[in-house]
Specification:
It comes from Pseudomonas kulmbachensis. Keywords: Signal. This protein is an alpha+beta fold. The protein is 21% helix and 37% strand. The N terminus is likely disordered.
């Protein structure tokens, strides 16, 4: 089979491009970490497993009743800081389909 494949360079090039693309897609997982900081604030940092940041990516603070308590986007440094809500909440990092991270309030580290 391989000898026929390489006699059709366009097919071989397309196949290798597809294989390469699949490998890159698997290495691009979303990551988000939230920590409590001074004065009742929480700072979240988002990015991807390939080391790239996530400026402009949606990061919403959502109540357990599904209301958006703090709508937001990550800043140029891929972080967002907000006042800790009084009610129960979770943080939703949403970089698109398949690139979502949820962090429950119980998982946010103390300072």
């Amino acid at each position: 089979m391989s000898s026929r494949l390489f006699k059709q360079p366009a097919l071989a090039a397309g196949l290798f491009a597809l294989i390469g693309f699949c490998g890159q897609a698997l290495a691009h997982n979303p990551m988000c970490e939230c920590k409590a900081v001074e004065d009742g604030q929480i700072r979240c940092t988002g990015g991807f497993s390939d080391g790239s940041g996530a400026p402009g990516v949606t990061l919403d603070v959502i109540g357990y009743d599904e209301t958006i308590l703090v709508p937001g986007k990550l800043g140029a440094d891929s972080t967002m800081t907000f006042k800790r809500p009084d009610s129960e909440f979770y943080v939703l990092f949403d970089a698109g389909p398949g690139h979502i991270v949820e962090i429950d309030q119980a998982d946010i580290e103390a300072p």
